[in-house]
Design a protein that fits this description.
Elements (H helix, E strand, L loop, with lengths): L3 E5 L1 H9 L4 H10 L3 E6 H14 L4 H10 L3 E3 L4 H6 L10 H9 L4 E3 L3 H5 L2 H7 L2 E3 L1 H12 L3
Parallel strand pairs: 1-2, 1-4, 2-3, 4-5
Helix pairs in contact: 1-2, 1-3
Length: 149
């Protein structure tokens, strides 16, 4: 069976790094055991470190540590031309690089806590051809479809 591939946006990565109790942290643990393949983009890495540095600087060192422990692949960002050509995918142009990186990485699921730009607009997932949900949704999907427990 093919290993499940998950793209984490910055909200999911931040949640996984800061909280040891949530579904996002469980996804990081599954990455550690190589039960799933986790991917972020350079854009997500930079957004994550900037946000944690501002809001929770005591956790900044944990970002790189968790990325290494969870064996997260850092994919290249889409080009400016690709971003401009795909602005139609969603209302927020700032999140288009994240969506495009997930599409290009050919992941099974994009994990996010961003309701405003990703989760509340089902057309984003439809246009992108991706499953998009919270880390909890991703875990439920894994349990239901792949019998990982």
């Amino acid at each position: 069976m093919k290993k499940v591939s998950i793209f984490l946006d910055s909200s999911a990565l931040i949640a996984g790094v800061i909280s040891e109790n949530g579904a996002a942290h469980v996804l990081l643990q599954l990455g550690e055991t190589e039960s799933v393949s986790l991917t972020i983009s350079k854009f997500v890495f930079n957004e994550t470190t900037r946000s944690i540095g501002r809001k929770s600087p005591e956790n900044l060192a944990n970002v790189q540590k968790e990325i290494e422990k969870a064996k997260i692949v850092i994919a290249q960002d889409p080009s400016q031309e690709e971003i401009q050509a795909n602005l139609y995918l969603m209302d927020d142009p700032d999140d288009v690089p994240v969506l495009l990186a997930a599409i290009k990485a050919k992941v099974d699921y994009l994990a996010t806590h961003d309701h405003k730009h990703f989760l509340n607009d089902p057309k984003v997932a439809e246009k992108a051809g991706l499953k998009i949900g919270t880390p909890g949704d991703v875990l439920a999907w894994i349990r239901e479809n792949l019998n990982l427990q």
